[in-house]
Fold:
Amino acid sequence: MWPAWELLAFCSLILTSTGHLSPDFCSQIFNSDVKPGFPKTVETNDPGVLKAARHSVEKFNNCTNDIFLFKESHVSRALVQVVKGLKYMLDMEIGRTTCKKMKHPSLDNCDFQTNYTLKQTFSCYSEVWVIPWLQRFEVPVLHCH
Structure:
């Protein structure tokens, strides 16, 4: 996203090079609903959201003493904010699977518990920072209850 002064310079350049400029051109950009640094709602099935949710669950699994792995069952709300990279803010549910931690299977191959006494779910809020050019994911915030 361009700062205001760069946008004005760009509009001036277009005007001087073409000799005309649609009166709506600059006002459309200034009145855009996308503001730099503001969180924006994103589809819960977006590949970036799903990847961020998986990183959140991996952190949860690393922080618990549970014998079973958990995985994301449903992302109910997702926001993304452009910062130094992307910051995903997720509301999601996670559930206990039938896979044990000691075997380290892929979560994709793990089914959710169906046994009533072992079945467990948590509602979680997570923030995931993605820095694509460094191929780095961080989960600084993860609250589950």
